[in-house]
Amino acid sequence: MRSKFDRQLAKLHDMLIDMGAMIEKAITFAIHALVQQDEAMAKQAIAFDAEIDQMEKEIEAMCLRLLLQQQPVARDLRVISAALKMITDMERIGDQAADISEITLFLINETYIKKLEHIPLMAAATSKMVTESIDAYVKMDLELAQHVIDSDDVVDELFVSVKNDLIDMIQQDKSYGTQAIDLIMIAKYFERIGDHATNIAEWVVFSITGKHVGEKA
Asked: At what angle do helices 142-172 and 118-139 cross, to 10 degrees?
C-alpha cells in the first residue's frame, strides 16, 4: 500500500513540475511580448491560462484522491495539503501573466515612453522564484524555500523603482500618464507573482516543519 502511495506522490510531484513549467513559459512569453511588442506571443501567453486552469483541476483531483484513498500519516498530510494550497497560487500566477499580456495588446502600436529596464528584471526574478519554490517542494529543501522568501524583497524594490520612475515622468509630462499607468499595472502584476511564489515557498516550509508563517494575498 505504501509503495502505491509513494508512486502516486511521485506523480503528484511530476504534475506540479509540469504546471510550474507552464507558468514559467507564460511569464516568459508575457515579458517577451511586452518588450518586443509581439501580438502573437501576447495572445499565446493569454491562451496558456486555460491550460494552467486545467492543470490546477487535475492536481486538485489527485490530491483529493490521495487524501481519501490512502489515509496519509501526518507528514504526508502536510505535503498534500501544501500542494493544494500551492496550486491556488500557481493558478493566480497564470492569471497575472495573462493580465500582463492583455495590457500589452493595448500597447502593441505605441512607442514606449522609456526603455523597459526594471520590468524585465522583475520578470526574470519572479520566474526564478516560481521555479525555485516548486523545486523546493519536490526536493523538500527548506534552505531553497527560505531563499525564495528572501528574494521577494528584491522584487519589491524593483517595483518601487518602476513606480517612482514612471510617476516622475507623469509629473514632467502629463501626456505620458495613460501608458505610465499601464506599465505600473504590469509591474504590479509581476510584484504579485513574486508574492504568490513566496506563498508557495511558505507552504513548502509548512510541509517540512509543520509551521506556516503567513500568507500574502
From this structure: 160
Q: What CATH number labels 2-209? A: 1.20.58.220
Longest dimension (CA), the chain: 68
pLDDT tier at 193 (50, 70, 90 boundaries)?
very high
Residues 6+ apart with CB under 8 A from 139: none
User: Are 216 and 198 within 8 A, CB to CB?
Assistant: yes
Percent of the chain with pLDDT strictly greater than 90: 79
- Strand, coil or helix: what is 120? helix
Distance of alpha carbon 212 from alpha carbon 78, whole angstroms: 11
Of residues 196, 203, 201, the one with CA closest to residue 143: 201
Contacts of 186 (CB under 8 A, 6+ apart): 34, 100, 103, 104, 119
In this predicted structure, the answer to whether residue 44 has a pLDDT above a threshold of 80 is yes
Q: Are the beta carbons of 104 and 80 closer than 8 angstroms?
A: no
Alpha-helix runs per DSSP H in the chain = 2-36, 39-70, 74-107, 118-139, 142-172, 177-209
- Residue 57 pLDDT level (bands cut at 50, 70, 90): very high
Residue 100 near residue 190 (C-beta atoms within 8 A): yes
- Average pLDDT (98-116) is 94
Query: How does residue 6 score in pLDDT terms, banded at 50, 70 and 90?
Result: confident
Q: Would you state the cell numbers that stand for residue 46, as one nine-digit string?
A: 493569454
Count of CB atoms situated within 10 Å of the CB of 26: 29
